Here is the input.
Amino acid sequence: MSNNKLYRGSLTTIIMRLLEQEGKMYGYEITQRVKELTNGTMDVKEGALYPSLHKLQSEGHLKVEAEKVENRIRKYYSLTPQGEKEVVNMMQELKEYMENMQAIINPKLSF
Amino acid sequence: MNKLTQEHIEELFVFTQKHYVEWYDLQSELVDHLANGIEHQWEENPDLSFEKALQKEFKKFGVFGFMDVVEERQKSLGKKYSKLIWKHTLEFFKLPKILLLILFSVTIFYLLRLISVSADYLSAVIVTLFIGYFVKLSVSYYRERKRSLESGEKKWLFKDIIMQHGAGFGLGLIPIHFFNILIPNTNSFASMNLWVVGIISFLFVLMCVMLYVMQVVIPKKMEEYLEETYPEYKLVK
Here is the structure.
């Protein structure tokens, strides 16, 4: 994750969420989709993307299919049933995190 | 729109090889990524040379290039391998195989009780077994490597891990240091506490079972495991 280290810890959540919405994607597609969604402000670093994908796969959250596309092989990642459950947890955690950050940055004043 | 030719794709494979990615499974994924990136650049700037576009795309991987990708893949497949060893070893704790486990442990137990040899001998036997094991592993791996280089066949990371028994790291699973704790130097087994002899016998058999799993059981099912790990394995074999 390039421009900000704040994003770094969220990479797996981003990947999982995208796959939940899009079904199956390949690595390059993920980098492009993130760029598109954030209007080019967020850049997923390739050197971090593939390690994360492989890790999620070995943890059983993702499965992979291969297809011959033109003159090369393309690997598509998608969620496993276990991954579908995990993404719900991840979104919940992210939501709590965002709420907490919100509370710290913008404390509600009470009298 | 400009598309990459077959020659370009082959150049990309060579490129990944030069950047220390030996294995086809990783190479093919990285090649597809680089190819997509280059084609994308050509959409915006059709006059860009292949070389320049490639360099630009490679830079996005950061200063360590493909190293992070390779390392993480090795780590996660290494874990997968350890899990396989445990899975197959645990099968020996179910009927009917557990009977073998008990039978061998009891046999070793009685042998140790009967022969009043010094514990040093058992240590010596274990050390010899290990040295022999490493020599055999190195020789067979070296031969296989030479053979696959000569035949030009594709390399698969998980296959390498299985062939090298997790680079010998599989042995980290074996609690060999227990022997050092359990075996005091001068005692003979006949005079030792029965429980200690029992534990030593069991651990010794367990170690043999794990070696058997790494040496025989997993390699036998290698094709199955490779197909399960790599969906592209059948496509290109």
Remarks:
- The longest helix of chain B spans residues 119-151.
